[in-house]
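[Q] Does anyone have a clean structure-token version of this?
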Amino acid sequence: MTLDFLVINTYNTQTLGVADISVYDTSPPIVSAATMQITIPGFPTPVSIPFNVNSFNVYNSIILGLTPFPAVTPLPDGIYFMKYSVAPATTYYVEKNIMRTELIQEKFDGAFMKLDMMECDSAIRTQSKVVLNSIWYMIQGSIAAANNCAIDTANKLYIQANRQLDYFIANQCGCTGNNYIINFP
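[A] Here you go.
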């Protein structure tokens, strides 16, 4: 038996999708006490929840015990420490760190969509694209760092991307076009 799981993007700030991609000795698999333990950013105590084998599991704030029914809220961005195990949990388990970026991605998408609607000249529009590309690379770097257990780097990149994105949005791009004209003649 080889346990493994894959976090699947649900394109929704309120859900976390996890697919079981394990290889089991028998079909259907004979497993007992399959659980997913998730440490959610900002919540120090891990949550242990049932995990459906050979299936796609979707979790929200109610299932994760963050909010009472029916108050589903967005799940926080940040590093999720996840451990899938079957009995005995000390023998059969797999652990992963994932950087969830759904909230910042939603904010980034909004800024990107406004870019096409801005009434500015070509240099300013191009400078805005350069700034947004820089932010996007920081978000991707944060995800890559989390995937490689570089937790501090992942958090620093996320914070910097979020800070720059907030500045970009607050200043309606905050660009003069000079950076693009000087650096990319």
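[Q] Thanks! Anything notable?
[A] The chain has a mean pLDDT of 87.
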